[in-house]
C-alpha cells in the first residue's frame, strides 16, 4: 500500500516536471551524417518510435527515420561500410561533380520508364538490390520488399542471406512478377549447388552471383563496434579463380550475372567468358575500401572496353538516392540501377514504406526526364549527351 502511494507521487512529480520542460528539450536531435538538407523536421519525432510516413519525401528521409527507430546496433548493421568509408563517402558524394544536360522544345507529354532486364519487362529501370537480413527493420522482412516491387513492376533480387527463405519470398510474388536471386560463391560446394537448384525451382529467373568478397567480408568498423566481433569469416570461397567462374555457368540453367565488378579488366573478362550481363558495384562501400564509384568504373569500361556495353547488359549501384543518380548511371551505359540501403531503411514501415519510397523515386524519375526534354528512358541508356562527367574524368584519369 505504502509503496503504491509512493509510486503515484513519483509518477505525479514526473508528470509535473515534464510539463515544465520546454518543448524543444523533448525534440529529437539526429545526426544527419552530412545528407542533403531538404528541410526534414524531426522536432515532433519520438526517439525509438516510427515517425509519420507522411514526413518521408525523398530517399534520404528514410535513412534518418530508420536511424531514429532501429537503435544503434541494427542501424549500424545496415549503414556500416568498410574501414575509413572512403568508398562509401565517394558513393554518396560523386553526384555533386556531375551535371545533367537538359533540352527544351521537345514533346515530353508521354513519358516511358519501361525497360527490359535480361529480356524481362519492368516498369522502371531501378531495382531492389540484394541486402542481407531485412528482418531487423520489420517482421515482414523481405516479403514486403517483394510485394512492393511486384506492385510497381520493379525487379527485386533477394539476398541469399535473407531473413525469409528462398521459397517464402517466391511465394508472395504476384503471378505477373519476375524476380532474380542473389547467390554467394560458398566454399561449401554442396551448399552452392543446393542453393542454385532451390532458386531455380522457386521460379527466380536469373542469378546475381556476388564475386567481390572472396573468402572474407570487408572490415566494417561501425558494425564491429556494436557486435564486438571481427566479422570476416564469410563462408565464401577464397579460391574462386577464373576457371571456377567459367565452370559455375554449368551449375544452373539460369543466366548468371557476376555482381561486384569493380575494374574494367574484370568486366572484359566476364564478356570473354560469355556472361549475358555484369553488375558493376562496390557493394555499397562495404567490401574493399578505396575502390572507385560506379560512375568511375563505368567511365573506365567505356574508355578501355566500349564493346562491353554493346555486347552485354550492364547494371550498376552504389550511393543511389535519387532519380538523377539513376539517370547518370543509365547515361553511362547501365541498363538498370540498384538500390541497396534505401529499400531496407524504408522497410521500417513495412510494405507501405517501400511502396512510398519506390513511388517517390518513380515520380522523381518521370519529372527529371521531362525536365531534360526526353520522353523515353531508353534514349538515355548509354547516351552521354545527357551528362557532363568532365570533373570526375579529370580527377580520375588525370590530364593527359
Ligand atoms: C545491409 C546490406 C546488406 C547487403 N547484403 C548483400 C548481400 O547479401 N549480397 C550482395 O550481393 N550484396 C549485398 N549488399 C550490397 C547491395 O546489394 C548493394 O550493392 C549496395 O547496397 C548498393 O549501395 P547503396 O546501399 O548505397 O544503395 C548489401 C548492402 C547492405 C547495405
Ligand atoms: C519544426 O516543427 C516544429 C514543431 O512542429 C516547429 O515548431 C518548428 O518551427 C519547425 N521547424 C522548422 C525549421 O520548420
Ligand atoms: C509500360 O508497361 C506497363 C506494364 O506492362 C504498361 O501498362 C504501360 O502501358 C507501358 N507504358 C508504356 C509507355 O509503354
Ligand atoms: C513485354 O513488353 C513488350 C512491349 O511492351 C510486349 O510486347 C511483350 O508482350 C511483353 N512481354 C511480356 C512477357 O509481358
Ligand atoms: C501485377 O499484378 C499486381 C497484382 O494484381 C498488380 O498490383 C500490379 O500492378 C501488376 N504489375 C504490372 C506491371 O502490371
Ligand atoms: C555443406 O552444405 C550442405 C548443404 O547445406 C550441408 O548439409 C553440409 O553440412 C555442409 N558442409 C559443411 C562442411 O558445412
Ligand atoms: C560446361 O558444360 C559444357 C557442356 O557439358 C562443357 O562442354 C564445358 O566444358 C563445361 N565448361 C566448364 C568450364 O566446365
Ligand atoms: C511493419 O510494418 C507494418 C506496416 O507499416 C506495421 O504495421 C508493423 O507495425 C511493422 N512491424 C513491425 C514489427 O515493426
Ligand atoms: C542522345 O541524346 C541526344 C539528346 O537528346 C540526341 O540528340 C541523340 O540523338 C541521342 N543519341 C543517340 C545515339 O540516341
UniProtKB/TrEMBL annotation:
<feature type="binding site">
    <location>
        <begin position="340"/>
        <end position="341"/>
    </location>
    <ligand>
        <name>FMN</name>
    </ligand>
</feature>
<feature type="signal peptide">
    <location>
        <begin position="1"/>
        <end position="27"/>
    </location>
</feature>
<keyword id="KW-0285">Flavoprotein</keyword>
<feature type="binding site">
    <location>
        <position position="283"/>
    </location>
    <ligand>
        <name>glyoxylate</name>
    </ligand>
</feature>
<feature type="binding site">
    <location>
        <begin position="130"/>
        <end position="132"/>
    </location>
    <ligand>
        <name>FMN</name>
    </ligand>
</feature>
<dbReference type="InterPro" id="IPR037396">
    <property type="entry name" value="FMN_HAD"/>
</dbReference>
<feature type="binding site">
    <location>
        <position position="184"/>
    </location>
    <ligand>
        <name>glyoxylate</name>
    </ligand>
</feature>
<dbReference type="GO" id="GO:0010181">
    <property type="term" value="F:FMN binding"/>
</dbReference>
<feature type="binding site">
    <location>
        <position position="281"/>
    </location>
    <ligand>
        <name>FMN</name>
    </ligand>
</feature>
<dbReference type="GO" id="GO:0016491">
    <property type="term" value="F:oxidoreductase activity"/>
</dbReference>
<feature type="domain" description="FMN hydroxy acid dehydrogenase">
    <location>
        <begin position="51"/>
        <end position="390"/>
    </location>
</feature>
<dbReference type="InterPro" id="IPR013785">
    <property type="entry name" value="Aldolase_TIM"/>
</dbReference>
<keyword id="KW-0732">Signal</keyword>
<comment type="similarity">
    <text>Belongs to the FMN-dependent alpha-hydroxy acid dehydrogenase family.</text>
</comment>
<feature type="binding site">
    <location>
        <position position="259"/>
    </location>
    <ligand>
        <name>FMN</name>
    </ligand>
</feature>
<feature type="binding site">
    <location>
        <begin position="317"/>
        <end position="321"/>
    </location>
    <ligand>
        <name>FMN</name>
    </ligand>
</feature>
<feature type="binding site">
    <location>
        <position position="286"/>
    </location>
    <ligand>
        <name>glyoxylate</name>
    </ligand>
</feature>
<feature type="active site" description="Proton acceptor">
    <location>
        <position position="283"/>
    </location>
</feature>
<feature type="binding site">
    <location>
        <position position="220"/>
    </location>
    <ligand>
        <name>glyoxylate</name>
    </ligand>
</feature>
<dbReference type="InterPro" id="IPR012133">
    <property type="entry name" value="Alpha-hydoxy_acid_DH_FMN"/>
</dbReference>
<feature type="binding site">
    <location>
        <position position="182"/>
    </location>
    <ligand>
        <name>FMN</name>
    </ligand>
</feature>
<feature type="binding site">
    <location>
        <position position="159"/>
    </location>
    <ligand>
        <name>FMN</name>
    </ligand>
</feature>
<keyword id="KW-0288">FMN</keyword>
<dbReference type="Pfam" id="PF01070">
    <property type="entry name" value="FMN_dh"/>
</dbReference>
<feature type="binding site">
    <location>
        <position position="210"/>
    </location>
    <ligand>
        <name>FMN</name>
    </ligand>
</feature>
<keyword id="KW-0560">Oxidoreductase</keyword>
<dbReference type="InterPro" id="IPR000262">
    <property type="entry name" value="FMN-dep_DH"/>
</dbReference>
<protein>
    <submittedName>
        <fullName>FMN-dependent alpha-hydroxy acid dehydrogenase</fullName>
    </submittedName>
</protein>
Amino acid at each position: 500500500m505504502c509503496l503504491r502511494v509512493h509510486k503515484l507521487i513519483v509518477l505525479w512529480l514526473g508528470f509535473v516536471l515534464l510539463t515544465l520542460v520546454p518543448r524543444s528539450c523533448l525534440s529529437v536531435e539526429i545526426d544527419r551524417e552530412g545528407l542533403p538538407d531538404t528541410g526534414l523536421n524531426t522536432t515532433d519525432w519520438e526517439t525509438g518510435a516510427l515517425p509519420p510516413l507522411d514526413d518521408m519525401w525523398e530517399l534520404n528521409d528514410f535513412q534518418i527515420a530508420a536511424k531514429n527507430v532501429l537503435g544503434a546496433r541494427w542501424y549500424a548493421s545496415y549503414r556500416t561500410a568498410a574501414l575509413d568509408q572512403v568508398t562509401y563517402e565517394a558513393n554518396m558524394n560523386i553526384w555533386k561533380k556531375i551535371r545533367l544536360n537538359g533540352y527544351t522544345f521537345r514533346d515530353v507529354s508521354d513519358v516511358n520508364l519501361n525497360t527490359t532486364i535480361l529480356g524481362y519487362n519492368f516498369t522502371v529501370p531501378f531495382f531492389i538490390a540484394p541486402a542481407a537480413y531485412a528482418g531487423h527493420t520489420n517482421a515482414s522482412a523481405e516479403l514486403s520488399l517483394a510485394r512492393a516491387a511486384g506492385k510497381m513492376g520493379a525487379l527485386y533480387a533477394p539476398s541469399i542471406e535473407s531473413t525469409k527463405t528462398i521459397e517464402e519470398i517466391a511465394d508472395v510474388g504476384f503471378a505477373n512478377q519476375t524476380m532474380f536471386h542473389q547467390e554467394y560463391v560458398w566454399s561449401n560446394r554442396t551448399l552452392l549447388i543446393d542453393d542454385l537448384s532451390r532458386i531455380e525451382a522457386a521460379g527466380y529467373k536469373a542469378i546475381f552471383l556476388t564475386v567481390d568478397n572472396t573468402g572474407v567480408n570487408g572490415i566494417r568498423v561501425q558494425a564491429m563496434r556494436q557486435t564486438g566481433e571481427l566479422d570476416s569469416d564469410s563462408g565464401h570461397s577464397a579460391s574462386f579463380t577464373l576457371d571456377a567462374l567459367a565452370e559455375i555457368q554449368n551449375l544452373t540453367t539460369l543466366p548468371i550475372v557476376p555482381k561486384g565488378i569493380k575494374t574494367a579488366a574484370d568486366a572484359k573478362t566476364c564478356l570473354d567468358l560469355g556472361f549475358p550481363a555484369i553488375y558493376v558495384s562496390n557493394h555499397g562501400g562495404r567490401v574493399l575500401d578505396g575502390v572507385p564509384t560506379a560512375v568511375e568504373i563505368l567511365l573506365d569500361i567505356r574508355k578501355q572496353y566500349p564493346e562491353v556495353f554493346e555486347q552485354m547488359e550492364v547494371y550498376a549501384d552504389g550511393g543511389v538516392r535519387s532519380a538523377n543518380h539513376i539517370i547518370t548511371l543509365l547515361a553511362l551505359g547501365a541498363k538498370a540501377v540498384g538500390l541497396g540501403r534505401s529499400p531496407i531503411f524504408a522497410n521500417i514501415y513495412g510494405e507501405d514504406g517501400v511502396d512510398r519510397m519506390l513511388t517517390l523515386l518513380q515520380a522523381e524519375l518521370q519529372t527529371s526526364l521531362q525536365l531534360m526534354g526526353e520522353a523515353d528512358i531508353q534514349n538515355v541508356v548509354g547516351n552521354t549527351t545527357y551528362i557532363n562527367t568532365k570533373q570526375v574524368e579529370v580527377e580520375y584519369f588525370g590530364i593527359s
